[in-house]
User: What shape does this take?
Amino acid sequence: MVKFLSSWVKNLSFSLIVVSILEMLLPNNKTKKYVKVVMGLYILFSIISPFIENSDKIDFSNIDTYAEAEWNTNIDNKKIDNTIKEEYLKRLKEDVTKQAEENNSQIYENDDYEQN
Assistant: This one.
């Protein structure tokens, strides 16, 4: 696996260096953007091709455990979100009740209100 990754990084580094040099040598004209697209596709191919070529050697058996762990994390996050939402609503209700009580006491203390 280490040999695979080291060769992949070497090939990718070589590709990036070649593309950088070619980009510096390109003249500023209308075809430059098309050449850049081709070079970008070359880099993309350099990134993906080793994984496609060695797909039979790469072990994907632990993907299920990773997906299950991710699923459980999402469920835990939803529980936490619901707890936070419930606590927020509880405190909001308390604050609104407190403000209403304060406003009612101020209204009743006001003499102008009692006359109307």
Summary: The chain has four helices and no strands. The mean pLDDT is 77.
